[in-house]
Amino acid sequence: MKDFKEKLSGRIFFVLALSSISVLALITVFILIKGTPLIAEVGLKDFIFGMTWAPGRGEFGIFPMIAGSVSVTFGAAVIGVPIGICCSIFLAEFAPAWLSKIFRPVIQLLAGIPSVVYGFWGMIFVVPLIRDYLGGPGLSILAGSIILAIMILPTVISISEVSILALPRQYKEGALALGMTHWQAIYSVVLPSAKSGIVASVVLGIGRAVGETMAVIMVLGNAVALPESILDPVRTLTTNIGIEMGYAEGAHEQALFATGIVLFVVIMIINGLAQYITRDKNKGRR
Amino acid sequence: MSEISEKSRLRTENLNLYYGSRHALKDITMEIPSRAITAIIGPSGCGKSSLLRVFNRMNDLIPEARVEGNVYLDKISVYGEETDAVALRKKVGMVFQKPNPFPMSIFDNVVIGPRRHGVKHRDELESIAENCLRRVALWEDVKDNLRQSALNLPLGTQQQLCIARTLAIEPEVILMDESCSALDPESTMRVEELMTELAQSYTIMIVTHSMEQAARVSDMSAFMMIDDEKIGRLVEYGTTEQIFSTPKDKRTEDYITGRYG
Ligand SMILES: Nc1ncnc2c1ncn2[C@@H]1O[C@H](COP(=O)(O)OP(=O)(O)O)[C@@H](O)[C@H]1O
Ligand SMILES: [Mg+2]
After folding, report:
1. How large is the ipTM?
2. Is position A260 within any domain?
3. Rounded to the nearest whole angstrom, what is the distance from the C-alpha of residue B45 to the centroid of ligand 1?
4. Is A184 part of any domain?
5. In contact, A119 and A217? CB cutoff 8 Å
6. Mean pLDDT, to the nearest integer, of B30-41?
7. How far, in Å, is the centroid of ligand 2 from the Cα of B95?
């Protein structure tokens, strides 16, 4: 009887695990089936490097959106990564215990705020600020980058901090024993030793930024055109889908699925990169 | 003893160490001679590492650790108001129990100290690296793969590298906390030879759990033990010869002959 129970529960877990994987597979196949015909028809090169997105006229070039995604994500990384890494160093190395005890849950909370709230805040606070002080429409690459920078902070901070704290104590002690100051020990031994975790946190943060939709729809202005400055509005791959999916049909709908394929591949590459960076390479260690 | 105190490098006077409310070392007064090896022996938990870490103020890293009494490096008061722990650690190097090379190349490991302390020129760093690696008898083995990761070296070699790294900051004193305990007998022998060699120019203090090692390499021996209140005490201190042949204290004798611990 006991044996039977063991076997049964094993089966149940297996089926549940299998079903979640198959849902994933189903979605992937669905997107591929819906999207590939259009890519085949337009041609991969024209689809990706095409400058004009005019579904009504049957022109499907997503290059402006790719430029939008890249520029907003890059901007988010430029703003968010240094802040995030500095925060993680502060938490792991300088903050007294009571302070990091407050800090950590707050950062987790930041990760739990729905993205529409970030978008809303950006719309009524960041966008007007940019419009009034820097010019342009306010809805811009800069606004999107600022919002995304805040949104990737929890990822960058928590993963970097964990990778710093996970270092053997002997590294830091060894550095200090050589007569280094605390700060010298951090930048010449601690950070290089935690490099792979920190880089992984950045890559995962970037992955999050590329995939974010709701928040950026509200602050980017969504113009389909190559931006000329960081104060110009842009549209990203994700927002393109988010905005047009509601009314698209036929080839237009297929083109949005095709956009999804491109996104899917980019995210896969980014996550694969993160996995590769954090892979176990301890073979040479004690 | 008079000639020893004349040249003595490190000195403690009524040293007491507390970890919070835990009294770990009590009333330790000793003089450590220069250009000699002083071994600290005693059962595990008696405070050997704690004592060693007093001399380079490594205990500063433990927030609740507190030191009373005086510790001197020559005329410098180690815990004096105006003494800078960072500057002190350049004079008092430390080699740890587990080899702890940094995850970087062999070359970078050796020169990281001098680099941080302001040596910029490439050729100067290279000559420091060669010099220090030669002193630990490692140069011939690694000179062709200085760019390789230090983590891929065998443990014994890693420890030699850690000693080279310590030599590179040109310390006056070298503290070694059970630095052979992770090594195989052959590497242990190499490191012991190295200690003897280094003792010609440095003041060396070692902690060891091996009686044989203390007897083999050290000039002075200090036997420590916890008392009835579990506080670490210095039971007996003298030349290694005297401690091992005619211990004055019964507890020392018991420990050395293996009747304890
Ligand atoms: N960081 C610490 N906090 C509190 N107690 C400590 C700490 N380090 C060591 N001790 C205590 O001090 C005593 C001596 O430890 P240690 O110096 O490591 O002994 P040994 O090196 O002789 O084995 C032990 O009882 C240990 O529990
Ligand atoms: Mg110890």
Report:
1. 0.91
2. no
3. 6
4. yes
5. yes
6. 94
7. 13
